[in-house]
Amino acid sequence: MELAGKTALVTGASRGIGRATALKLATLGANVAVNYNRSPDAANEVVAQATGSGAEALAVAGDVGTREGAEAAVKAVTDRWGRIDILVNNAGITRDMLLMRLSEEDWDAVLDTNLKGAYLCSKLASRHMLRNRWGRIVNISSVVGITGNAGQANYAAAKAGLLGLTKSLAREFGSKNITANAVAPGYIETDITAGLSEEIRKAVLAQIPAARYGQPEDVAEAIAFLVSDRAAYINGQTLNVDGGMVMS
Ligand code: NDP
Q1: Whose CA is nearest to atom 25 of ligand 1?
Q2: 213 is catalytic
Q3: For residue 209, with 0-12 CB atoms within 10 Å meaning exposed, 13-18 middle and 19 or more buried, which class applies?
Q4: Which CATH topology does 7-240 take?
Q5: 159, HSE (Cβ side, Cα atoms, 13 Å)
Q6: Ligand 1 center to 206 CA (angstroms)
Q7: What is the pTM for the complete model shown?
Q8: What is the rounded distance in angstroms from the CA atom of residue 57 to the CA atom of residue 89?
Q9: Is residue 187 in contact with ligand 1, taking CB distance under 6 Å?
Q10: What's the longest Cα–Cα distance across the chain?
């Protein structure tokens, strides 16, 4: 129960990686706020499961890509527990298209949810971390934020932006016992990847030395480590969780 007494906000925790992360942090004793945008039933199911593991949990509505949504989500957490110690900026969407056909709307939607959401939530939550002189921010980037990817200019730009945001926050908060790190997943089997064709899935698999796709729990383990006291001296880093797909 190494996170007992801590309160965590996981954005986009109704499904996929966020869900696995919320459940993992709950098993470690943290109070967990399960943020969602469009899936209240799924979020409530995560809350029920997290509560079953002994921690307190709360479903928190809010489109984190908007100021109003981010404020509502953070306020719901602080109204309930009076603090935020751990923020996992996980909410993300894709709107894949080659640049020539990539609409401004799809550019904005992806940048707002994936990047602006992390800026808004970090700004709001860090006030509480600064007050308590302890904090952990983990931004969920992607290996395509490192490599780029044809058809994902909006997504790759947002995920690369998260790496710059992470390093800047690490520098701003480093002396305050607050760390900011990024996790860059490779190919993880969730709803986001479920729609990809068998041809693409096979091509990706051929690039993974581990010879398997990742599971949400693989990513949740890395996040759980980064938010723990064991990772107190790790700051501003990017941890790839990709079975060896991208090596620097
Ligand atoms: P899923 O599609 O399975 O889940 C996305 C989650 O984000 C859902 O809980 C969804 O909630 C939530 N969400 C979407 N938009 C918003 C919003 N505006 N405000 C709040 N919540 C929102 O995706 P994954 O679990 O696969 O992805 C999680 C993160 O990991 C994303 O940032 C993604 O880019 C990143 N990632 C994923 C990889 C993969 O292979 N799966 C690889 C690399 C990175 P709701 O249903 O309520 O809208």
Answers
A1: 16
A2: no
A3: exposed
A4: Rossmann fold (3.40.50)
A5: 25
A6: 24
A7: 0.99
A8: 17
A9: yes
A10: 51
